[in-house]
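Anyone have tokens for Chemerin-like receptor 2? Sequence:
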Amino acid sequence: MEALEETLFEEFDNYSYGIDYYSTESNSEEKAHLGVVHCISLALCCLAFVLGIPGNAIVIWFTGFKWKKTVSTMWFLNLAIADFIFLLFLPLYISYVAMNFHWPFGLWLCKVNSFIAQLNMFASVFFLTVISLDRYVHLIYPVLSHQHRTLRNSLIVVVLIWLLAFLMGGPTLYFRDIVVFNNHIICYNNFHEHDSDLILLRHHVLTWMKVIIGYLLPLLTMSICYVSLVLKMKKRSTLMTSKHFWTILAVVVAFLICWTPYHLFSIWELIIHHNVYFQQVLKAGIPLSTGLAFLNSCLNPILYVLISKKFQARFRASVAEILKYTLWEVSCSGTVSEQLRNSETKNLCLLETVVS
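Reply: yep, here.
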């Protein structure tokens, strides 16, 4: 085991944050600095969980069960489902960081937890890309949109997006592993145990695949859609005053702000070699950017409420309907109970009369 640990540490010098974090080269001042950064990361993750679970649950409830099924509600429903599933597993990561990167939950939860995080990232960005394309086609080519923008077609797209997200997150299930290092169990990417060249190759391929397919291509697509919308419809006041347009744009911008640092540090991790200062920046930057990325999962419901007047109106109407139904049930229950009590009293009086 000691030989394995030494091999892992040598081969994963800049390619495994978890193992590199336990390097004995870090002094007490550096560890104190990292401790502050990790506290900030934990605060971001806890905030994402506390706000995201009820927020996304409300979006799922209304878009999935209360509101009329439309293409738009289909997109936002699945976006909320992706965030909600991820947030359910977030306490595992919070515990991992809180216990100084010690993973006591076993191998399969190590694999599943990392897979869910990747699934959420890819599913979210794919749905945001489809939402942008859908808005572009709907406004620029209304006839084409009317012909093909149906619930059936949107359901097919939803299934394809989830399949693609599962496929992109699949390597995590295969490579994620645990190892004991410095009395800690580390959950990390085990690309290979001995071949350093293969380790670097697999790490580069998976990182660039994640950056290109999960970030750059969607970013380029969304940018082209929104720039084209603004340029082609700048003379129409409908676009600039459309709350739906600004809501979608805000959701996309929030995704980019939250996930850009994560991808930048992922690339930086590939190119840093034997530079102690940059390694310390990387140690601090990766958990901080990860916490910021996870925070994105709670922002979408907040943006819907703050920006979308349509969402606010539907939300208020739905809540009013639920309250009205609840009060009606309570009222009916009280009336029935009163009727039963009156009936029992009347029967008791009749019984007393008969007896006497």
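The longest strand covers residues 176-181.
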